[in-house]
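Propose amino acids for all 161 sites.
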C-alpha cells in the first residue's frame, strides 16, 4: 500500500491545497493530512477549525485521514509508518525552501522521500497569508477557498474585522 503525508498549517486550506490533495489521492492509496501550527506565524484559525475544514471537504473519502501534529515532521512520519511527504510548489522560491527541508528531513529520517507537485497555473498566486488579508479587508475570497471555509466565514465574519 502506497501511503503519503501532506503536512502544513492550512491556515486556512485553499483551493491550491485542495488541488494538491486531489492529485495526491490519485497517486497514493492512502493520504494523511497532517495539520500543524506554524511556529513562525500567528494562526488565524484554530487547529480544530482547520482540521474540520479539510474533513468536511473529504468526508466521503475513506483513504484520507486528517490529524493534528506537533514537533518534527519526521518523528510524526515514523510514528505513522509513512516515509513519503507531499509538498506543493507554486513558485521557484518554494522549491528552494522545500529542497532544503527535504535534505534535512532525509538526514533525520533516511527513508524520507519528498514528492513535489507543481501547482496548477490558476493556483500559483494563492497563499494562505494572502487569502487571510483578503478576508480581513472584506475582499472577494470565494474563488480562493473551498466550500467548508466559505461556510465558516459566513457564520463568523465579525471575527475577521
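Proposal:
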Amino acid at each position: 500500500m502506497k501511503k503519503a503525508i501532506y503536512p502544513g498549517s492550512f491556515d486556512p486550506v485553499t483551493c491550491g491545497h485542495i488541488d494538491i490533495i486531489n492529485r495526491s489521492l490519485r497517486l497514493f492509496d492512502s493520504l494523511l493530512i497532517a495539520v500543524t501550527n506554524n511556529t513562525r506565524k500567528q494562526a488565524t484559525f484554530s487547529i480544530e477549525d482547520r482540521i474540520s475544514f479539510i474533513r468536511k471537504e473529504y468526508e466521503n473519502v475513506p483513504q484520507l485521514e486528517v490529524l493534528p501534529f506537533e514537533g518534527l515532521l519526521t518523528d510524526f512520519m515514523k510514528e505513522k509508518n509513512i516515509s513519503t511527504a507531499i509538498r506543493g510548489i507554486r513558485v521557484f522560491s518554494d522549491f528552494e525552501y522545500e529542497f532544503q527541508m527535504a535534505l534535512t528531513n532525509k538526514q533525520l529520517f533516511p527513508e524520507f522521500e519528498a514528492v513535489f507537485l507543481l501547482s496548477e497555473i490558476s493556483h500559483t498566486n494563492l497563499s494562505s497569508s494572502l487569502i487571510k488579508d483578503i478576508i480581513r479587508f472584506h475582499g472577494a475570497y470565494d474563488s480562493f477557498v473551498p466550500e467548508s471555509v466559505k461556510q465558516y466565514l459566513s457564520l463568523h465574519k465579525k471575527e475577521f474585522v
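DSSP finds six helices and five strands in the chain. The two ends are 46 Å apart (CA to CA).
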